[in-house]
Amino acid sequence: MKYVDEFRCSEHVELLAKEIKKTCTQPWTIMELCGGQTHAIMKYGIDQLLPESISLVHGPGCPVCVTPLASIDKAIAIAALDEVIFCTFGDMLRVPGSTKDLMTVKAEGGDVRAVYSPMEAVELAQQFPDKQVVFFAVGFETTIPTTAMAAYQAKQLGLKNFKLLVSHVRVPPAMEAILASPENRVQGFLAAGNVCVVMGYHEYLPIAQKYQVPIVVTGFEPVDILRGILQCIQQLEQGRSVVENQYERVVTQAGNVTAQAMIERVFKVATQTWRGLGEISMSGFELNTDYAEIEAENYFQLAHINTKEPAECRSGEVLQGILKPSACPEFGVRCTPERPLGATMVSAEGACAAYFAYRRQNSD
After folding, report:
1. What is the pTM of this model?
2. pLDDT value for 363
């Protein structure tokens, strides 16, 4: 496949692995910030090509995984209502709430539908004017432009039966929360290239300067990831702390300004709770005044749902890079993709799911 095979070239991979070993003279800990990168690292065995002195840890790079339990319970409560058509991306269906998941609600008779785009929910609202159509808006900055466009289109069409349950989050504040933690051991970041396609990487510049940590915007293929690691190690070895763009074939510093304008038209930045990380200032989005009427939580009066995270699931430690999935005593025992204790085991981008798929028989 053109433009893909060259970034999976085994010769390039071997050369980069050798250059990393040659460059690295001391132990370093690097965190990748996207679940897609985590799965690529596990699938291709990228971490096993590195010297033992380099430790890769997995950050809060899965939007499904960081969606708070309270939001899942609110989604379940809405989806169970007779007058509702509840729409969500497919990887949200099996994320456990406090007592059940959305798939169970569907099996019990709820009209729960997996969609590929929030625009499908807008179309359903047009087709079924007697129903309240609710879209569960989950994701990083990568997916929020499509949610904003759906809200904008629904408003333009005058739809009164389209609602959003919003759980969108922003990556840079989560990075700062990790770096400010007394338990932090991250010395460098591989930033998520897909997020930076939309938002650019200008927001990372003050973080690199403030915390003296290198940040390399990185893609998702083996060559991308190894180049990102090499650039990060080179900075660490040289005592530099700047933002570099390994994914320059796709990412610019400014990002997609048209998409950013659409986000600003519909949303405003707000404090958000992250599953496993707690409340992080200005780390999420909420609908602005012009679009407040489509907020599902207010419409269905669900502010009273404030579920606490269960202690048995240690995904919060995984999301902070403190615990490797295979080090959790419940991994593969009481927690499996069929019976997950938390979202990191069931999400397509979850770190625990990656370890279960590719490293189930190995220990770290």
Report:
1. 0.92
2. 44
